[in-house]
Amino acid sequence: MENQCFWYLENIELMGMMDKAKMMEAREKLELKKFKKGEYIYLPEEVSDKLYFITEGRVKIGNYSDGGKEITKTILNKGEIFGELSLIGEEQRRDFALAMEETGICIMTLEEMKMMMKSHSSISIFLMKIMGSRVLDMEQRLESLVFKDSRTRIIEYLIGLVNKRGQRVGYEMLVRKFLTHQEIANLTATSRQTVTTVLNQLRNKNILTFNRKRLLVRDMDLLSQEAKEIVE
User: Fold this and answer.
1) Are 190 and 196 in contact (CB under 8 A)?
2) What are phi and psi of 25, to 5 degrees?
3) Does the pLDDT value for residue 205 go beyond 90?
4) DSSP 170
5) Which of 52 and 232 is assigned the larger pLDDT?
6) What is the pLDDT of residue 14?
7) What is the torsional sign of CA 158, 56, 136, 166?
8) Is the dihedral of CA 34, 21, 11, 86 positive or negative?
């Protein structure tokens, strides 16, 4: 298990910043753990003392309102890192992390990561970029929530999803493991019914097609134009 975890980390940008000796040292400190679909990786108020690297699967980060409603902050995929707020003083988790499917997680303690950061300033910069990027994403989502209607929020989310995870197939863009309508609704502060309506409208215009396994955008320019339209 440790060897598999180390092999994975060798192939992401973080480990590319380390010399061979430090990589071998880190090898002894890694833990690979499997989580079943629907299993929590951590919950709010748990001690915040680890960082997590996704080796396979998907992870939902979110929390619950006072009324018990689930609030989805982000959905992360293979190759992404989470739990990084422990690096800036978070003592207890404020969010939950949930495996959306069978998921492999490589775990490193906060203490071990801090030691690596002391030896390699480039790792600190790398992690700062990740945290900065997520702050910007949250700011953009907040602005979208305040100033844009539900339809625009959904379409802009689709555009961002394609830009981040899409693969070019000829003139089209393919996103594998498409989200459910409820998951998109949670991410855009809309309703499942509204997401279904917007997706069906875009499919009827032949801008995209979708099912539970994938999203295929036929024309990104047309999709971008739809985000600018005001529906009466």
Assistant:
1) no
2) -65, -40
3) yes
4) T
5) 52
6) 52
7) negative
8) positive
